[in-house]
Amino acid sequence: MASIRTYSLIYVALLLLATGKFVFFHFPEIFNYQMAVGGTMILAVIKVSLIAGYFQHLKDEPRSITYLMLTAVFMVFLLTLAAGYSIQ
């Protein structure tokens, strides 16, 4: 289990990443809409990784569970793409 210091650093990192999301959309003279959406998606992936790894303790799980979860996420991604394609 991680220490309180580690959890505090992760919390501060999550706050900074949330602030980054705000910056992307509130400075249109620097970031256009596509850059803001792309940056927000990258920040979201980082935030999800930090939350799942530390707060849900998945960092300490065996690698087989990690690979199983990555496979499930990939399959959900494929289903989302297929659903989006069929709607168009």
Topology as a string of helices (H) and strands (E): HHH
In percent terms, what proportion of residues is strand? under 5%
Mean pLDDT: 89
- Helical percentage: over 70%
Structural class by secondary-structure content: mainly alpha
Major pleated sheet: none
Unreliable runs, pLDDT <50, ≥5 residues? none
How is this fold's topology laid out?
Blueprint: H1 4-26, H2 33-55, H3 63-87
Key terms:
88 residues; mainly alpha; 2 domains; flat
Would you write up a description of this structure?
With 88 residues, this protein is mostly helical. It folds into 2 domains: 1-56; 62-88. Helix content is 81%, strand content 0%. It has 3 helices and no strands. It has helices at 4-26, 33-55, 63-87. α1 packs antiparallel against α2 (33-55). It is flat, with a radius of gyration of 17 Å. The mean pLDDT is 89. It is a multi-pass membrane protein.
Question: Quick gist of this model?
Answer:
Keywords: Cell membrane, Membrane, Transmembrane, Transmembrane helix. It is a multi-pass membrane protein. This protein is mainly α.
